[in-house]
Specification:
- The structure is a single chain.
- This protein is 37% helix and 14% strand.
- It folds into 2 domains: 1-83 and 191-294, Rossmann fold; 101-187, no CATH class.
- It is of the alpha/beta class.
- The protein has 12 helices and 7 strands.
- The protein is globular, with a radius of gyration of 19 Å.
- The structure holds S-adenosylmethionine.
């Protein structure tokens, strides 16, 4: 409850979310993953008079919010968008190509030895579904799940802390098969999230969860976390302002983003979270009208 005094704007009705209490449906462990926001997203959907026709996550990454919306049928359809080709390979394989069973079996059969990891990660120009397997393995063996160039690897043989400690083939298999089973509710677009926002700007029955890479704050440098991190935030805010449908956006809490939100007439709220090291932190939630949260 420390957050209450540290962050007086925090709505007292919202408990600090313990990520372990939210079903983890993504096969990724994703830097900046939004598992902790799931209860807030459920509350947001509950505030709508009608089920949205489409839910769009234009910066999908590990897509925990989009997957939750699809599993819990919070919208008629869910569309995920991601620019990073390595991440996109997983979503294309499972959602578009219907190859989730193949991928799940490959994960189950993969013997996680130093030699096998090295051989798989060195390969280039792989067919799409093999690239998906490569991404899943890389996401597990790299420190923090970071897929951007330069990410460090966990070491083999650190008792309880090395690569093996992040490799749960049966869990990953189940998550992928579960997504495979509901793939008809999902569409994946490999490309630029801002273009997809622009395409759907005039549609009032479409709602958006926008979680862009953020690079202006050196402490949580998006440039280290994501291969694609160079985003025009002014442009994004302008496009978001033009949306006919409702939206939620999350950002690191800082003055530049608060100023942008204010300029566009958006509502802001600080939301507490616990990061993977269980440290209490906050992020900024931005929306057109966040009264449903209070
Ligand atoms: C903060 S992360 C999203 C994390 C996600 N909400 C989750 O829970 O896993 C931002 C993502 O946006 C992607 N990205 C960066 N620029 C993009 C763009 N122009 N269009 C679509 N995705 C982009 C990055 O590759 C990264 O996966």
């Amino acid at each position: 409850m420390k957050q209450l005094s540290l962050f007086p704007e925090y709505p007292a009705s919202l408990p600090v979310v313990n990520v372990a209490s939210v079903p983890q449906r993504s096969p990724f462990r994703y830097p900046g993953g939004k598992t902790w926001l799931v209860p807030v997203i459920r509350r947001w959907f509950a505030s709508f008079a009608h089920k949205p026709q489409e839910f769009v996550e234009p910066f999908a990454g590990g897509a925990i919010i989009g997957l939750t919306a699809a599993f819990e049928q919070l919208a008629e359809h869910v569309t995920l968008v991601e620019l990073d080709a390595a991440v996109a390979a997983v979503w294309q394989t499972v959602i578009e190509d219907g190859e989730g069973v193949w991928l799940a079996e490959q994960i189950e059969q993969f013997a996680l030895t130093p030699a096998n990891v090295q051989t798989l990660l060195q390969q280039t120009n792989l067919p799409l579904r093999e690239r998906a397997l490569q991404t899943i393995v890389k996401n597990r063996v790299n420190r923090g799940g970071i897929l951007a160039p330069g990410a460090g690897k966990l070491k083999f043989g650190e008792a309880g802390k090395g690569i093996g400690s992040r490799w749960y083939p049966q869990t990953l298999k189940k998550r992928i098969l579960d997504i495979h089973a509901i793939r008809q509710r999902l569409t994946f677009i490999s490309g630029d999230g801002i273009s997809v926002l622009r395409d759907r700007a005039g549609q009032p029955k479409v709602v958006f969860f926008i979680d862009p890479p953020y690079t202006a704050d050196g402490k949580r440098a998006g440039s280290r976390l994501y291969t694609h991190n160079d985003l025009d935030h002014e442009e994004l805010f302008a496009v978001v302002q033009s949306l006919a449908g409702d939206f939620l956006m999350t950002y690191d809490a800082n003055d530049r983003i608060r100023a942008l939100a204010q300029q566009h007439g958006f509502d802001v709220e600080l939301i507490p979270m616990k990061n993977t090291h269980h440290a209490a932190m906050v992020e900024l939630l931005i929306g057109r009208d966040l009264r449903w949260l209070r």
